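Entry 14. Ran structure prediction on the chain below.
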Amino acid sequence: MASQPLISVFLLLLVGSVVNSSAAFHPIIRLPTEGTPATDSRSQSDDDGIFCASWHLASETNNAGGWNQIPSRCLSYVRYYMTGKRYESDCEVVANFSTAFASTVEMAPDGKDAWVFDVDETLLTNLPYYMDHGFGSEIFNESCWDEWVASAKAPAIPSSLKLYNMLKQMGFKIFVLTGRSEHQRQDTSKNLELAGYTGWEGLILRGASDGGIPATIYKSERRSVLLNGGYRIHGSSGDQWSDLLGFAVAKRSFKLPNPMYYIG
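Output, structure tokens:
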């Protein structure tokens, strides 16, 4: 049996070890101390960033449904996304997947293999306009928009222009199907050509009889006309789900990002 002095020395060493270990130990979960509010330590900016990234995902996947304006707390997020490298990269990824699919299509000799493109935020970017109009935080002003369209100054989305030209080289017939009005045909055609887009098979705009028709139905009806004309729509590119859904849809649809506005 150990002597009493040895036991005392052992206990002193053990207590000292526990005290030293406790001093170095930092618990993962910290309980609030008395007088300290149990609040999240993240800043409001961090909270907004997380919320807006989630909102962006919901809007792109159509889980958000219809909406008229971006959330006010997301203005900085949308500005940063649209003017930074992420938007450009996301568009490039969509274009690369589109090219990969197009390369698998067995082209027929009848010249009826087609691809459909939307215009705004698909072939052209209206970022200069939206930089002056709150990146989607302002209610849409049709008069201001018409003035912008008439200026024909919207630049091309670089990855879309590359895809467009590549599809032409492959032999696809390109149809440009836009929600712009027929009276904007000349301005739209001019803008597309100035941005580098040429050689489309057809430029389709809303006529007088299309007024009030939801975009999904309008575009579906126009695609149906193409199918009835013997065209095979292999691919369709657009920034809105209304560009891609409905009936007479393409074999593959490719959605470009757009957190600035929604068209149902």
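The domain at 46-255 is CATH 3.40.50.1000 (Rossmann fold). Will compare against last week's run tomorrow.
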